[in-house]
Specification:
This protein has 243 residues and is of the alpha/beta class. The protein is built from 7 helices and 10 strands. It has a 7-stranded parallel beta sheet with strand order 1-10-9-6-2-3-5, with helices on one face. A 3-stranded antiparallel beta sheet has the order 4-8-7, with helices on one face. α1 crosses α2. The protein binds 2-phosphoglycolic acid (PGA). 2-phosphoglycolic acid binds next to loops.
């Protein structure tokens, strides 16, 4: 079911993914985009910025909903996903910041923060296109391996594997927040189209299990096999177990 697009390397993956997002914006200038943070999509955002600067893309009517945010970080914390999105995309294109949304990690009331986010994503009609990275352990957003698939936005305890993987971006491993608010798996599945980007050998097992493994909450990304419109753009290393 999943459509796999092979890319030569990170650069090629980024350009192909940006092409797909750019087509979405051209076809529907007021589209709703679901966006992701992490190292993988940075090149995709760079490419979109470049095309915006050339005059090929217009974000004026686009609205965005991010997948997740660390709990306990203020919007201006350089480690927050609010900050990441401004740095890596929003500050460089003509998007109206009022149309950009990220779960409010600064709200300590998890229930209120999550139900508020669910309401605004639902009111927007869910993303036309959802961009996703994938964790080494098969997580999407911060939906970690579990014994059930999650539904709406909720507060999660990050797994040791995710804390370790994300600690590369923090000075000390202890600095990585232990909890996050994330869109649930069900909400992700409501997107009309899902675009997964993956590169590097560390993702090979997760990419294989997402595409060809059993559909199981122990690999949250495997549920994407049940979605009618998923494109996986991955480089050779990430696809090395998918021969
Ligand atoms: P990464 O994260 O792009 O930094 O590898 C992906 C993810 O954990 O979803």
């Amino acid at each position: 079911m999943l459509k796999i697009v092979r890319a030569r390397d990170y650069q090629d993956m980024s350009r192909k993914a940006a092409n797909i997002i750019s087509a979405q914006i051209i076809l529907k200038p007021d589209c709703v985009l679901g966006l992701a943070t992490g190292t993988t999509p940075i090149g995709t955002y760079k490419q979109l910025i470049e095309w915006y600067e050339k005059g090929d893309l217009d974000f004026a009517k686009v609205s965005t909903y991010n997948l997740d945010e660390y709990r306990g970080l203020s919007h201006d914390d350089p480690q927050s996903y609010h900050y990441f999105m401004r740095e890596n995309l929003f500050n460089h294109v003509n998007i109206d910041l009022a149309n950009t949304h990220v779960p409010d990690g600064s709200n300590p009331d998890a229930e209120a923060a999550c139900s508020e986010y669910d309401k605004i994503v639902a009111a927007a009609g869910y993303p036309d296109l959802q961009l996703l990275g994938i964790g080494n352990n098969g997580h999407i957003g911060f939906n970690e391996p579990d014994d059930h698939f999650s539904k709406g936005t909720h507060c999660v305890d990050l797994t040791e594997s995710t804390i370790k993987a994300n600690s590369r971006l923090f000075e000390h491993e202890e600095d990585v927040p232990r909890q996050a608010y994330t869109m649930g798996t069900q909400t992700i599945m409501y997107a009309r189209m899902i675009l997964v980007v993956a590169n590097g050998e560390a993702k090979a097992q997760a990419v294989h299990d997402m595409c060809f493994g059993p559909v199981t909450p122990s690999c949250p990304a495997s549920i994407l096999q049940l979605h009618p419109n998923v494109v996986v753009v991955a480089d050779e290393a990430a696809l090395s177990l998918c021969e």
